[in-house]
Specification:
Blueprint lengths: L3 H40 L7 H17 L4 H27 L3
Helix pairs in contact: 1-3, 2-3
């Protein structure tokens, strides 16, 4: 194996590590925003889930994924995972709000 291959492999892995870190920071920011949405929903007694919005988001993300040459099915599964976690957080916030916490 040439020395160039391990060097290129290390560079690529370094770039992947940077992208992974950026993804985590972006997810953290997204969850800060959805936390605020959950608090607003709890104050106004709105449901944790919004199926109509979720459906629009899935379609939008599938289009964006296709434009970015990313498998739309993967993008939909990824978004479904995030939405499920957001709903779980919103339900917890609503419960805390009802309990007066």
């Amino acid at each position: 194996m040439s020395a160039e291959i391990p060097a290129e492999l290390a560079r690529l892995r370094g770039s992947i590590d940077n992208v992974d870190a950026a993804l985590l920071h972006i997810l953290a920011e997204r969850f800060k925003l959805t936390e605020r949405v959950g608090e607003l929903k709890a104050r106004h007694d709105l449901p944790a889930a919004d199926p109509a919005r979720e459906s629009r988001q899935v379609e939008r993300l599938r289009r964006l994924a296709a434009e970015a040459n990313l498998d739309p099915e993967f993008a939909e599964k990824f978004l479904a995972f995030i939405i499920a976690e957001v709903i779980r957080h919103h339900e917890r916030i609503a419960e805390e709000h009802r309990d007066g916490r």
